């Protein structure tokens, strides 16, 4: 054998200590820094989401005791419990989880992109675009194309219009925001126009898209949303590391070796897909995409762009809103979209009126 | 000494740039406004969603014509046109006054939540037991006043001229909040929902002159106050300190402006429901015609406001024949591009 093979491998240089506040996950010669506070925050949010799911499964017009809920979710227990929990509530809560997570991700991506925490799918018109096209799929054309596909096209159209007319997201994103507001208003008017023209039955069928609610989701759209999330969430997590850079000036980012335009495109694409699919499932749930990233940022601290945290917080907000809407005025049901709008509205106002210097997410 | 000096300086500048001097611009603006108003009034009387077309309607106006056409034109279209003229005047003037008072070219009663405040107040009062028929316009006026206070309060809090776009976002948030609250009240109370549908979607269809006789005095009072406040407000465009130096009282001027906007918007909501974007489009067009001085803008807005509302109303009859659609939808379609245009203009004009 040659001498080279016999020579022992050179000792690997000792890894530098992990920066304070992070954990290093190392495997062979690859390693990953995990922000401690962000990881803890995500874990806490996950626990909260799990608790809300359990309570949501148990509570309703007919309550099931908590200790019988979990078995019933897997089909074990009395027939009545299984019907209530597994057949009626589980699909609804699964849809709520997926919708909330999608909106949360979409919100955090758009906010970072526009460098402005007011930029969410509601404010820049993505939701209105998705709503208009989803309505069109029911009212205007009689094909078998699912509303999900149309809603995707709609949110993409709105994003393209808003970005194109505003000439890019801009440094502070305010022009983007108001142009988006205008695009949203026009698309909202188009929705009204279609509803005014449509026969009453079709108009009723399209009504869920005018107030966000988990009540009338279709099974197909939930499946499509789940598939979309399975793709978009990992992409968003990977993008999350680059997103931190987007908070800096373009020249700095380019100097650090990231291709700004490509990252932006990927971010917009992911935000459009998540917002469109979520709207196709549950309609425009007001302000979830604003509240969720805000909660996640508060919990995870300023160092990271909390993509996973935002997804969890979004799920939490939607589930809580749905739970409130189902129980507060029972037997009448308030749509979850109205609950989130009433809760989130004052917060948005307070945010707009109090903060003097804007710190970007 | 008053703001005449500043005006003269501005007119000299504009003449130097090749635009006509103010008197000629004003005359041109008034001519355009009158022509637009006359054309839209005529169109509003001639076109409809039903079977009575322009030919038969023209015959009625000429004094001949069959009974059907006579009924459609005299009993349906004339009152509708009159209400649209009143509402359009009110909204155009309110928009111009609010924009000057907030020193923000994007300030618009619909966008800032003033109309939403009026609608919400009406819904709340009806939900607490009052009948819709017995309700005067005052509830709507009070609601509009509260919305106006919030909007202008926000502008003051942020400091004037700080960020025009911020105020619009705050207004959008307020509108969304009040809209959601309105929906919840309506969901919980079916009786209110039936009586109130009228106030939640803006439209001038089927309004009779009786509505106008209630609302008319309110609108007239608002218009009078707006004209009274025009002079101090246009001085405020030069900044609070300068206005004070010229002998005006900024706080008083803003108070007058707020009262005028509350009366005008509340009255128009009581007559026709919330109609967004008119208060944005009309001052925008008026400024393009006659320049930024509020007094000249008001003179033209009085003509252009009704013209814009009438044009939107005629479109709302023709777009989905034989149905009609809410007027607010058409104004949003017209107004959204204007909003984009204002934001896109490279230098955001600060009023």
UniProtKB/TrEMBL annotation, chain A:
Region named Disordered: 1-22
GO MF entries: transmembrane transporter activity
GO biological process, one term: siderophore-iron import into cell
InterPro entries: ABC_BtuC-like, ABC_transptr_permease_BtuC
GO CC annotations, alphabetized: plasma membrane
Name of this protein: Iron complex transport system permease protein
Listed Pro residues bias regions: 8-20
Pfam family, one: FecCD
Lineage of the species this protein comes from: Bacteria, Bacillati, Actinomycetota, Actinomycetes, Geodermatophilales
TrEMBL record, chain B:
Principal place of residence: membrane
UniProt cross-references to Gene3D superfamilies, sorted A to Z: ABC transporter involved in vitamin B12 uptake, BtuC
Protein name (database record): Iron complex transport system permease protein
Organism lineage string: Bacteria, Bacillati, Actinomycetota, Actinomycetes, Geodermatophilales
Subcellular location: Cell membrane
Record GO cellular component, one term: plasma membrane
Cell membrane as UniProt keyword: yes
Keywords: Cell membrane, Membrane, Transmembrane, Transmembrane helix, Transport
Organism encoding this protein: Geodermatophilus amargosae
Lipid bilayer topology: Multi-pass membrane protein
Pfam families named among the record's database cross-references: FecCD
Transmembrane region(s): 30-49, 78-98, 110-129, 135-155, 167-188, 218-238, 259-285, 297-315, 327-346
GO biological process: siderophore-iron import into cell
Molecular-function annotations in GO: transmembrane transporter activity
């Amino acid at each position: 054998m040659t001498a080279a093979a016999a020579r022992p491998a050179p000792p690997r240089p000792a890894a530098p200590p992990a920066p304070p506040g992070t954990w290093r996950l190392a495997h062979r010669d690859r390693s990953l820094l995990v922000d401690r506070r962000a990881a803890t925050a995500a874990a806490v949010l996950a626990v909260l989401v799990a608790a809300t799911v359990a309570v949501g499964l148990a509570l309703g017009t007919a309550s099931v005791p908590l200790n019988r809920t979990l078995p019933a979710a897997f089909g074990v227990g009395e027939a009545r419990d299984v019907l209530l929990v597994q057949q009626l509530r589980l699909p609804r809560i699964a849809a709520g989880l997926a919708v909330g997570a999608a909106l949360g991700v979409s919100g955090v991506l758009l906010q970072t992109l526009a460098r402005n925490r007011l930029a969410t799918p509601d404010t820049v018109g993505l939701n209105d675009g998705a709503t208009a096209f989803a309505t069109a799929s029911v009212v205007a054309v009689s094909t078998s194309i699912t509303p999900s596909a149309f809603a995707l096209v709609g949110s993409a159209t709105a994003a393209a219009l808003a970005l194109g007319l505003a000439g890019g997201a801009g440094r502070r994103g305010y022009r983007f925001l108001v142009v988006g507001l205008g695009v949203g208003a026009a698309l909202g008017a188009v929705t009204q126009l279609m509803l005014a023209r449509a026969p009453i039955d079709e108009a009723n069928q399209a009504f869920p898209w005018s107030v966000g609610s988990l009540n009338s989701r279709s099974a197909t759209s939930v499946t499509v949303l789940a598939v979309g999330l399975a793709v978009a969430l990992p992409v968003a997590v990977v993008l999350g590391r680059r997103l931190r850079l987007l908070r800096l000036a373009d020249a700095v980012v380019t100097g650090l070796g990231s291709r700004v335009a490509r990252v932006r495109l990927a971010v917009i694409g992911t935000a459009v897909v998540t917002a469109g699919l979520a709207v196709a499932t549950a309609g425009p749930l007001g302000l979830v995409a604003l509240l969720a990233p805000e909660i996640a940022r508060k919990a995870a601290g300023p160092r990271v762009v909390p993509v996973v945290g935002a997804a969890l917080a979004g799920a939490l907000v939607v589930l809580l809103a749905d739970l409130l809407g189902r129980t507060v005025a029972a037997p009448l049901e308030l749509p979850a979209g109205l609950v989130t709008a009433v809760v989130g509205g004052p917060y948005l106002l307070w945010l707009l009126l109090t903060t003097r210097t804007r710190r970007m997410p | 000494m008053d703001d005449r000096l500043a005006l003269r300086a501005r007119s000299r500048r504009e003449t130097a740039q090749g635009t006509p001097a103010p008197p000629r611009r004003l005359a041109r603006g008034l001519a355009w406004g009158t022509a637009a108003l006359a054309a839209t009034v005529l169109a509003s009387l001639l076109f409809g969603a039903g079977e009575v077309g322009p030919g038969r309607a023209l015959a009625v106006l000429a004094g001949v014509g069959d009974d059907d056409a006579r009924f459609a034109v005299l009993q349906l279209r004339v009152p509708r046109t009159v209400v649209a003229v009143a509402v359009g005047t009110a909204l155009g003037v309110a928009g111009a006054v609010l924009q000057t008072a907030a020193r923000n070219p994007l300030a618009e009663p619909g966008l800032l939540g003033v109309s939403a405040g009026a609608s919400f107040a009406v819904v709340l009062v009806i939900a607490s037991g009052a009948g819709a028929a017995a309700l005067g316009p005052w509830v709507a006026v009070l609601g509009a006043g509260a919305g106006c206070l919030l909007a202008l309060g926000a502008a003051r809090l942020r400091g004037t001229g700080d960020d025009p776009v911020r105020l619009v976002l705050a207004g959008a948030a307020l509108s969304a909040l009040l809209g959601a609250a309105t929906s919840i009240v309506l969901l919980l109370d079916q009786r209110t929902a039936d009586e109130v549908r009228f106030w939640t979607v803006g439209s001038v269809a089927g309004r009779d002159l009786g509505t106008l006789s209630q609302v008319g005095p309110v609108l007239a009072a608002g218009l009078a106050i707006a004209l009274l406040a025009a002079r101090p407000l246009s001085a405020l465009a030069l900044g609070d300190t300068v206005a004070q130096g010229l002998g005006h009282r900024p706080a008083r001027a803003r108070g007058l402006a707020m009262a005028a906007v509350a009366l005008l918007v509340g009255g128009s909501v009581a007559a026709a429901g919330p109609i967004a974007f008119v208060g944005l489009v009309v001052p925008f067009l008026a400024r393009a015609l006659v320049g930024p001085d509020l007094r000249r803008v008001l003179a033209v807005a009085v003509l252009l406001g009704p013209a814009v509302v009438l044009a939107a109303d005629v479109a709302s009859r023709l777009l989905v024949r034989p149905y009609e659609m809410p007027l607010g939808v058409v104004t949003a379609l017209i107004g959204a591009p204007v909003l984009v245009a204002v934001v896109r203009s490279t230098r955001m004009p600060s009023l």
